[in-house]
Design brief:
By secondary structure, the protein is of the alpha+beta class. The chain has a single domain (6-74), classed as Nuclear Transport Factor 2, Chain: A. It is built from 1 helix and 4 strands. It has one helix at residues 6-21; strands spanning 27-34, 37-48, 51-62, 67-74. Strands 1-2-3-4 form a 4-stranded antiparallel beta sheet, with helices on one face. Strand 1 (27-34) and strand 2 (37-48) form a beta hairpin. The longest helix is centred in the first third of the chain and has 16 residues, at 6-21. The chain is elongated. The model has no long low-confidence stretch (mean pLDDT 93).
């Protein structure tokens, strides 16, 4: 049984990405509960040399809400 809720997991990831990517537009596409934590996937905008792109992300949280891993990929 996770110690944090689905909404709390999403909020942790959104706040983390707002600071790391310096954007307020974070779109969560999926929040998946695992036995050892949460997997949150979605997209956020990125600016590469003046061109706007979408960047996909996957963030894995442990049961206490600590970020274990992050993965970013250009879409």
């Amino acid at each position: 049984m996770p110690q944090i809720s689905k909404d709390s997991a999403s909020e942790i990831v959104i706040n983390f990405l707002k600071k790391r990517k310096e954007t307020d537009k974070i779109d969560i596409a999926m929040v998946e509960e695992q036995t050892d934590g949460w997997i949150i996937r979605g997209t956020c905008p990125i600016d590469l040399e003046g061109h706007k792109w979408a960047e996909g992300f996957t963030v894995i949280l442990d049961l206490k809400g600590k970020i274990k891993t992050t993965d970013f990929s250009l879409l």
